[in-house]
Amino acid sequence: MGEQNGRRIIGGRTFDFSRQVAVMAIVNRTPDSFHDRGSTFALEKALDAVSAAVDAGADWIDVGGVPFAPGPEVSAAEELDRVLPVVTAAKQHAVVSVDTFRPEVAREVIRAGAGVINDTSGLRDPAMADAVAGTDAQLVITHSLAPPRTPWPRPQYDDVTAEVAGFLRARVEVALSRGVRPEQLIIDPGHDLNKNTYQSLEVTRRLDEIAAVGYPMLAAVSNKDFIGETLNAAQHDRLAGTIATVVYCVLHGARIVRVHDVRAVVDAVRMTEAILGWREPVYTRHNIE
After folding, report:
1. What count of other Cβ atoms lies within 10 Å of the Cβ of residue 40?
2. Is 117 a member of any domain?
3. Are the beta carbons of 235 and 228 closer than 8 angstroms?
4. What are residue 24's phi and psi, to 5 degrees?
5. Which residue from 97, 111, 171, 258 puts its CA 20 to 30 A from 121's CA?
6. CA geometry: angle at 278 spanning 274 and 280, to 5°?
7. Could you list the residue range(s) of the whole structural domain that residue 204 is in?
8. CA–CA separation, 39 and 62 (whole Å)
């Protein structure tokens, strides 16, 4: 069992995951992103999105320069050109994570002030662990069957939740063996990444089993296809389903949630924290005055 939920310093900020949930806003500098469809590809638009997310209560900004889904090749140099200006601008206002699977990109963005490397490849290149070892950065290890940018039609599992948990345990061991400290690790079951809707629903339903791997857990569920297919909801009509999924994930162990609609999810998460007794109301007047 690895590092349990507890106090961590991430990007110079303290989080107590025993009683706190971090809300991670998504800012993609890509022309072909899954949800934004390039709306924050232009640098000025990306920086505006950072400011809006911080104003809406985001704790983290997750910056991406290359989508997970298949698409045109993006070189490491181009990826860095996309993400570094956002890292530099955002690090003064929030924790900055960079969604990348390239160790050379990870090294550069950590030097620039990124507090988290969000590796959607699940350490397929073990050199990613080397890039994070010896730094103060956190490393998110995400489950998928295929490398990023690679099609994987009709994914099959005998027991999807057990297999996701087993994969994460194995990749955690790789990270530890290469010098990453337990208190640097975060896990992500990878909702919808090489998973169909039934599989993503089952992983969510049994999320306690993923949390039992023993590290703070990230749930990246915002507006995903398993929500859309479950509700017959178009891409931009999935907020209610997203909020329901986020709250369920928090109640079953998620301590970081990655979202597009920051203000609404911040309210849902803070209300959940208050119901759990983790957070005081901002003010109390009803039946008191």
Report:
1. 23
2. yes
3. yes
4. -105, 120
5. 111
6. 55
7. 7-275
8. 15
Tell how many helices (H) and how many strands (E) occur in the chain.
10, 10
- What's the DSSP call for residue 272? H
Range of weakest confidence among 34-38, 73-77, 178-182? 34-38
- d(CA 142, CA 147) in angstroms, rounded, equals 11
pLDDT band at 3 (very low <50, low <70, confident <90, very high): low
Give me the number of domains the chain comprises.
1
Residues β-bridged to residue 256: 22, 218
**211-247 pLDDT, tens per residue?**
999 999 999 999 999 999 999 999 999 999 999 999 9
CA dist 285 and 107 (Å) reads 50
Task: At 62, list the tokens.
Answer: 């997750």
What lies within 8 Å, CB to CB, of 103 at 6+ separation is 125, 127, 128, 130, 131
Output the domain CATH number for residue 177. Answer: 3.20.20.20
What's the Cα-to-Cα distance from 269 to each of 48, 150, 192, 264, rounded to whole Å?
Answer: 23, 33, 22, 9
